[in-house]
Target: Multidrug resistance efflux transporter family protein
Amino acid sequence: MQPILIGICAAFFFAFTFVLNASMELSGGSWIWSASLRYIFMVPFLLCIVIIRKNLRPLLNEMRKQPRTWVLWSFVGFGLFYAPLCFASAYSPGWLIAGTWQITIISGALLAPLFFETIYTKNGPLQIRGKIPFKGLIMSLIILLGIVLMQIEHAKQLSLESLLLGVVPLLIASFAYPLGNRKMMEVCEGRLDAYQRVLGMTLASLPFWFLLSLYGFYTVGLPSKGQSLQSLLVALCSGVIATVLFFKATDRVRGNMQKLASVEATQSMEVLFALAGELIFLSIPIPSPLSWCGIFIVILGMILHSYVSNRKEESHFKQSVNL
Model:
């Protein structure tokens, strides 16, 4: 239960991303700077935390062992996650992006066969290839139904091109984030804590963010002071606090695909937090009844997904004990 509560806290701070990205888009800021500045600004915060905890040297030693692996999966987990997310903010309101983003729950479940999970038997731990949790996946389809209802309402106001530009990048991001996160958990094998892992992935993804910044400088110019300040807030709230909380939650259930899926399902709460933030701070129009229906279906799907995953885990544990 504790990892799920930590996941919900992470969802609250992640919601700052959607609200502030929407604010920057409304004020004319480019998605390029919204994406790159977040990770550039994260570095000093995370460095201070890791140095104070006297954990910098072990992190650097780990990164030296497999530098290409770190760069690859950090690019996938951070670069292919956040750049498309910011790009989509130009075509959809923050709460709708937060709602559509929950398709990552389905994406994460479909990635299960790419990883191994640990079963504890009388003869010790046993590594087996993960299986797609079909019961949890059925519950995830309820979440997908809610997303479709929200997008149908939004599609009435947009062209097909704009709708695709708001959805396709999110589909890419929904697979990239859990894939990069899980791959790095495999690489670290519990040797690094959440702060170290986030810092390591941020440092390893910096070449991509610097290249994106260079592209932004030549195409849209430098960011405004307002966008820089809001990007700093995103870096602190979402990039540092939320990411560390989420990684802490996933670390606690590392090696168990069922519990991992439950923790990832808590991110469905982002849609409510993002909607509340936009209503209060950006004075957006209140969503239509159909959109509200979609929102609550997403939340219901998240609750059912966690319930089914936990029930299956209890049965799975009883079976493994008897092996």
Notes: Residues 2-321 form one domain. The first helix runs from residue 2 to 26.
